[in-house]
């Protein structure tokens, strides 16, 4: 399995309502893109203070690299990314093979 970890840091202009809308839109990709095996997300709750301003975490699971590679250019994913970009201060994406 391939895990696709996405951490988001929103701009000051992104209201709580906008952040909630973007989170819901990201979550809805699982209903639109069949290659997504699972998608979960949550808000940072770490007491360590090492988040560097990243507040939202999404973990997308794919069966394999081919499924991940189909997801990346998928029109629903690309539309979401276009909608999200104006509200982002930073994004961190890591993919790894689950062991």
TrEMBL record:
InterPro entries: Dabb, Dimeric_a/b-barrel, HS1/DABB1-like. It comes from the Bacteria. Residues 2-96 form the Stress-response A/B barrel domain. Signal peptide: none annotated. Gene3D superfamilies: 3.30.70.100. It holds the Pfam family Dabb. Homodimer. This is Dabb family protein.
């Amino acid at each position: 399995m391939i895990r696709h970890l996405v951490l988001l840091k929103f701009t000051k202009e992104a209201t709580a309502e906008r952040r909630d809308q973007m989170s819901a839109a990201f979550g809805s990709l699982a209903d639109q893109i069949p290659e997504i095996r699972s998608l979960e997300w949550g808000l940072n709750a770490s007491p360590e203070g090492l988040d560097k301003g990243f507040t939202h975490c999404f973990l997308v699971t794919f069966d394999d690299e081919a499924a991940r590679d189909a997801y990346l250019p998928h029109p629903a994913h690309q539309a979401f990314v276009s909608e999200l970009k104006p509200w982002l201060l930073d994004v961190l994406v890591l993919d790894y093979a689950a062991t």
